[in-house]
From TrEMBL:
<protein>
    <submittedName>
        <fullName>Acg family FMN-binding oxidoreductase</fullName>
    </submittedName>
</protein>
<dbReference type="InterPro" id="IPR050627">
    <property type="entry name" value="Nitroreductase/BluB"/>
</dbReference>
<dbReference type="InterPro" id="IPR000415">
    <property type="entry name" value="Nitroreductase-like"/>
</dbReference>
Length: 328
């Protein structure tokens, strides 16, 4: 029988919180805070970091928090504890996303450890990919990973469907770029060169001018009216990669959190195999375009994330707030 001491428990909680800081979030807003009471972690949504124009419902905020929740679960398992999770446990505290307590002591399996090793290595990619193909067997494995968390990952197979998704992304980006308030909200999270901020998107983590994939998937214009961003070797990074949709059957807060957990599980497994992801949420932030995707492309399931999966040799750069900053 495996036994764990109070010191083991405290070390596991500390490791889990350190890991949770590295979860992905829209524009790297890091919209979460944590509290610890005894052997229980509380994960809370930080509504002050919600995108009030782009994400008024808080859907992307809760997807981000769901990714942090899966990260905590994985880190606790790597530390030898089985997490006991309660999602949205208190209707009177809507910002309380989940509580996580430490259950029985158990050694993590090889797959869980492999995921845990990628938590701080994973990076969001914001350009095109190399021409190296993503193995079909890996895509199949990623669909199983999403299913294990209650979501569905569907690679978009036909060129016609890929073009539809790309066209909707371009349309949404064009509409949002014409909206000054939305644009200002996006660039609020774009860090200029030399910035010491520990949130948002660093200047060397997005291209100064987007690589034109075929079909073209429009990128967020973090360099709007500035000479910010990294120079990208266009000849090396123009492949689209595998386009995939993450969906859920319903569209409740619980399912948004489940989508976030599925997303992080997929991303960590992809990273373990040398595959990165680029995200395109523009069309999902516009009701009519999201509904079109749901009915015409997603088989009436609700699209929660649009991503491209591919191989890049750009390690990228990211920043995170320190643990004291996210402990409340």
């Amino acid at each position: 029988m495996i036994t764990r001491t109070t010191q083991d428990r405290d070390r596991a909680i500390h490791s889990a919180l350190e890991a949770a800081r590295w979860a992905p979030s829209v524009h790297n807003t890091q919209p979460w805070s944590f509290a610890v009471s005894g052997g229980e972690i509380s994960l809370r949504a930080d509504v002050e970091r919600k995108l009030r124009m782009g994400d008024p419902s808080g859907r992307e905020l809760l997807i981000s928090c769901g990714a942090a929740l899966f990260t905590i679960r994985t880190a606790l398992r790597c530390e030898g504890f089985e997490p006991i999770v309660r999602v949205l446990p208190d209707p009177d505290r809507p910002s309380l996303v989940a509580t996580i307590s430490l259950g029985e002591a158990a050694d993590a399996d090889e797959h869980t450890r492999a995921l845990g090793q990628q938590i701080e290595r994973r990076r969001t990619h914001r350009a095109g990919f190399t021409d190296l193909p993503v193995p079909e067997r890996l895509v199949d494995a990623l669909t199983r990973e999403a299913r294990a968390e209650g979501a569905k990952l569907t690679p978009v197979g036909s060129p016609e469907a890929v073009e539809i998704v790309a066209a909707l992304t371009r349309a949404a980006q064009a509409a949002q770029s014409a909206d000054r308030v939305l644009t200002l909200e996006v660039i609020r999270w774009a860090r200029p060169p030399g910035s010491t901020r520990t949130d948002g998107v660093p200047a060397d983590a997005y291209p100064r001018s987007a690589a034109h994939t075929d079909p073209y998937f429009a990128q967020r214009d973090y360099a709007w009216r500035h000479e910010w961003g990294a120079e990208v070797g266009q000849e090396q990074t123009t492949a689209t990669g595998v386009v995939a949709l993450l969906t859920t059957r319903g569209d409740t807060r619980e399912e948004w959190i489940a989508a976030g957990q599925a997303l992080q599980r997929v991303l960590l497994d992809a990273c373990a195999h040398g595959v990165s992801a680029a995200f395109h949420t523009q069309a999902l932030e516009m009701y009519h375009l999201r509904e079109f995707l749901r009915q015409e492309v997603c088989g009436h399931e609700y699209p929660q994330m649009i991503m491209r999966l591919g191989i890049t040799f750009d390690d990228g750069h990211s920043v995170r707030r320190s643990l004291p900053e996210v402990l409340g």
